[in-house]
Amino acid sequence: MSFSILGTGKAVPEYVLTNDELSTMVETNDEWIRTRTGIEERRICKGETITELCVNAANEALEDAGITADQLDLIICSTMRGENLTPSQGCMIQKEIGATCPAFDVNAACSGFIYALDIADGYFVRKKAKHILIVSMDNLSNITNWKDRSTCVLFGDGGAAAVLGEGDDLLSINITANGNDVVLCIPHGENSSPFYEHESKPALLHMMGNDVYKFAVTAMPNGIRTAVEDAGLQLSDIDLVIPHQANIRIINTAAAKLDIPREKFFCNINHYGNTSSGSVPIALHEASRSGVLKKGDILALCAFGGGLTTGSCVIRWSK
Ligand code: ACO
Predict the structure, then answer these.
(1) Which of 43, 69, 82, 264 would give a disulfide with 99, using CB separation of 3.0 to 4.6 Å?
(2) 247 CB under 6 A from ligand 1?
(3) Could you give phi then psi for residue 246, rounded to 5 degrees?
(4) Is 244 one of the annotated active-site residues of the chain?
(5) Residue 154 domain boundaries
């Protein structure tokens, strides 16, 4: 016995940054961004804090699940950078929604939601929880190098939450890591120690896009194939794939390599860009709310990102 997804919620900032507006900030244009990435616009935090977004997504997911915060046994927040180094973002969510359970953060970059699902699976298997809240939220505009056109056009802010309850809808789950701080890295930034002998690097996202691309077009199909095999299913049994929304060309390549019809890959990258760990659960939430997901559907979730990490799983949708 592991878990079922009881409810989902989403929170994105109000401000919509279009490709045209970005073209006034760096030397780029709407046509390049659309054709190379599939992105048309992204949401960027102005007035919202990451905690406010987390709380909004969490409350919507709790309401959707029909439970209250005091029924939660654990909160896991997947994020690369919460409001503070401590308290964790999970503890900030716990405080704001009025829960009393343990709470902590996990950082697996864009694979964070699936890492959190894997951790949650362990709690359900050990019968340590009846209800777990996962909130996956990133605020990448804080660490984006807004002068680097090869990265600043790709990312956006936002995330989503899921409430899990005891159930048997998780059919397989698989996470991987391949330590690499060369192709994708966001340093911490300043170091206040007068004793430290190394130079601090600015807290800005640095990415070798072509290398990450090559990694992703192998990692995504491999992750989906492994999760489907582990679930004892065939690729043709998958009703909907919820892929990490990093680049539409990565998704198209994965669909072609797996010979899964492209229409079975849910995509909303045009509206949000890459929201890191928020990407897969935002897509899951929108697939659910838009009626694309039907009760009994078999879903494959797949993400890859900084670390380098990957996560994939197969879930039955029973809502
Ligand atoms: N506008 C216009 N031109 C641009 C832009 C831009 N925004 N960015 C780059 N270019 C130019 C380059 O300078 C280059 O010009 P040149 O040929 O004169 O040198 C040309 O466009 C082609 O550049 P490439 O880097 O080869 O472009 P490519 O088609 O490979 O796309 C991209 C780059 C979109 C970054 C792609 O490699 C990609 O999507 N990589 C994967 C990124 C990813 O998935 N990250 C996920 C992890 S993120 C995380 O975990 C937080």
Answers:
(1) 69
(2) yes
(3) -105, -40
(4) yes
(5) 2-167
